[in-house]
Amino acid sequence: MVNSDQTWRKFSNTFYDNAFLYFAKSWKVVKFIYGASLGYRKWKFNKLDEEIAKDCLKSFRGISVRENGAINKIQKHLGIRPSFVLDPTFLIDKKYYLNTNFFFFYESKKYIF
Question: pTM, whole model, 2 decimals?
């Protein structure tokens, strides 16, 4: 499974391996992208990026995004219509966050950081 705020952002030479599992393109395993973020409003893939991404994504069983606006961009440029799903951070019960040491709360207990 792939999921990240950086899934659709080309940031390094290993982008296709990390974001679209290029290294596993021919593996006979179920692959999917769940609730990944596009992270920007303007499409940033060039034509070569698009062709490589299309080739990698052919082997995915499902692709979904957490931003409604990403659906049309991905469909327009890659010919794939992803599903729109809830951000994965909202799939965990509130109790998990309340019991985590990674977060602190203001005295008002309204905000999480």
Answer: 0.76
